[in-house]
């Protein structure tokens, strides 16, 4: 990879553009998931749609076959936080579903997740999802050259803590991304600012807070994938892939690159130049 010496994968501008292509496939699929998910629909049906869209885009799945994972989406329902395998159980009114999805184009990965309320929203779930999503954007806004990695973690934690008495998962967090889906560095969703490696242009990170209505403690089910809350509380999960550039953060898995969010807060970003 190009760039100054680093133990992390540093991408050239051309390689970031390839990641953007993968990121837009992810954005398209998750937008479709938002439209299709509803009462009576199964997560296996959502997985089928995502597979068809991958094929149409000429992309590959980041998830399918990853350590044996059998699907192209992770579809985590209610007290399931992450990594749940799609199944034939129909979604019901009042459910909360997170869909995590990754795509590969020319060897480069994009990865993002959204949380969807099924049917009639429940105020406590809406508040949790909104807080988790806003914390993700706060973390993305700190993906600026010269900042430290824990500045992202701290920004995420501050938003979630200020929004309510939510549990923040400690065993899971964000990660580097590029030629592989999961790369160094690991990005916790909590911590003090000013620590960890310096962020430099060419780094790409997947920022993904996960929060619950109750405890931060989780366990993995017998399928060796599905992670659930130990107290049965419901969870939310949001994620975007962001590139650190000389002009600021560029959210590769958002259709507008983050332009609207960053512009409203006066944060410099190349997003406006590349929005589609």
How does this model look, in words?
The structure is a single chain. With 276 residues, the chain is α+β, with helices and mostly antiparallel strands. The chain has one domain: Alpha-Beta Complex (Creatine Amidinohydrolase), CATH 3.90.230.10. It has six helices and 15 strands. It has helices at 13-36, 43-57, 123-141, 149-163, 259-264, 271-274, and strands at 60-61, 73-77, 80-82, 96-105, 108-117, 167-168, 174-176, 183-187, 204-207, 210-212, 218-220, 227-229, 235-237, 240-245, 248-251. It has a five-stranded antiparallel beta sheet with strand order 8-7-9-14-15. Strands 1, 2, 4 and 5 form a four-stranded antiparallel beta sheet that branches. Helix 1 (13-36) packs antiparallel against helix 2 and helix 3 (123-141) runs antiparallel to helix 4 (149-163). The longest helix has 24 residues, at 13-36.
